[in-house]
Design a protein that fits this description.
The structure is a single chain. The protein is α+β, with helices and mostly antiparallel strands. The protein folds into two domains: about 10-70; about 70-135. It is about 25% helix and about 30% strand. The protein is built from three helices and seven strands, in the order ββββααβββα. It has helices at about 60-70, 80-85, 110-125; strands at about 25, 30-35, 40-50, 50-60, 85-90, 95-100, 100-105. The strands form two sheets. Strands 1-2-3-4 form a four-stranded antiparallel β-sheet. The chain has a three-stranded antiparallel β-sheet with strand order 5-6-7. Strand 1 and strand 2 (about 30-35) form a beta hairpin. The protein is elongated, with a radius of gyration of 20 Å.
Length: about 140
């Protein structure tokens, strides 16, 4: 005699946790939602500024607002050949080329590359009509 066991799985989706692991851009920085505390209504987000990694607690409502107001992030090829071609140097220092023009000068190539990535993120997190950045979540510290 064969016994067949039937296992039923119940999928419980907790809406607050759907933001964990997602990215958003603000003021030219990339932020990652690392944890959502349902009881407190707080989301912990992390970002890297210079050599420092920050973890910031934000109201959950602010995180949701940033996701719904921001255009989708386009992060493909930030380190690809096309981005590398946008970096140049002359006697005054290092520069990068953007739609807004030549940006720089920077002391090193790596600084120019870092600022190019920051610029791309800033443009993606900016109000499309004015290309001004939104308020940074760092102000919530």
């Amino acid at each position: 005699m064969r016994v067949i066991y039937v296992i039923e799985w119940t999928l419980v989706i907790r809406p607050l946790h759907r933001y964990e692991g997602r990215l958003f851009a603000a003021e030219g920085y990339l932020f990652l939602v690392v944890h959502v505390d349902e009881a407190r209504g707080i989301a912990s987000v992390t970002c890297r500024m210079g050599e420092e990694t920050l973890v910031i607690d934000m109201p959950y409502a602010e995180v949701v607002k940033r996701f719904h107001q921001a255009p989708p992030l386009l992060l493909d090829n930030l380190h690809g050949p096309a981005a590398t071609k946008r970096i140049s140097s002359d006697a005054d220092g290092w520069y990068f080329q953007s739609r807004e023009g030549r940006m720089g000068s920077y002391r090193t190539r790596s600084e120019s590359e870092r600022e190019l990535i920051r610029h791309v993120l800033l443009m993606q997190s900016a109000d499309p009509g004015t290309r001004r950045g939104r308020n940074s979540c760092v102000t919530a510290l």
